[in-house]
């Protein structure tokens, strides 16, 4: 086997490839499944070596890596398009993206997140898998939320309670959490992109983007942070009020939630203004 600059996880790759042709497929598969390669270079090298083997099942392992690399390249192109979208508005200045979650539920707060990303990063340093938070599973959202917080130039979260929604109205609270999210940043962006509609009374340039969480990297990042924050909050409320299923419906009007409202009545986190046609 030719010399290879071993990186993290590559030590086990070297063991796998030593005397590859003399190993049974069962052993190869076990060692393959235990690999944790992180670099594209290592994955490409392993793929090439496995594809040289004459056994179809070993070649299939090489093709599995090829499929993963092809998918990663497509993801890179997709996410680069989202970063390029934001760069087109930023024009070299700081740009923020803002999004909300929890406008429609019967219970719990409305939450916004505002995020400023470094749009001048190299392709390999972009945050992959950014997307509308609702299109991601829970595990992926939580992983991405931590990555976003770590890599963001700045981020902020704002919320308005069910009591404030009842007294001030959902539209006012929706706009207010956008404004407070912007105010909570540690930097001052030159422009803010918002998902769907413009922010009232904002003091910097604002552009609205239809389905922005699928087009803009910063709006998608905000969408993910906001949803993870609110979902975790509603899980805690689910422990406090187990009859309503908040841990799964996050306050929306699922059947279990409606049935509990009719049997037990509203809790302290319900939006009474949203329950007029239910109770």
TrEMBL record:
EC number: 3.1.26.4
Domain RNase H type-2: start-end pairs: 93-279
Main location: cytoplasm
Catalyzed chemical reaction(s): Endonucleolytic cleavage to 5'-phosphomonoester
GO MF annotation list: manganese ion binding; RNA binding; RNA-DNA hybrid ribonuclease activity
Note accompanying the cofactor annotation: Manganese or magnesium. Binds 1 divalent metal ion per monomer in the absence of substrate. May bind a second metal ion after substrate binding.
Ligand binding (a divalent metal cation): 99-100, 195
HAMAP family: RNase_HII_B (MF_00052_B)
Protein family: Belongs to the RNase HII family.
Protein known as: Ribonuclease HII
Protein species of origin: Clostridium thermobutyricum DSM 4928
Taxonomic placement: Bacteria, Bacillati, Bacillota, Clostridia, Eubacteriales
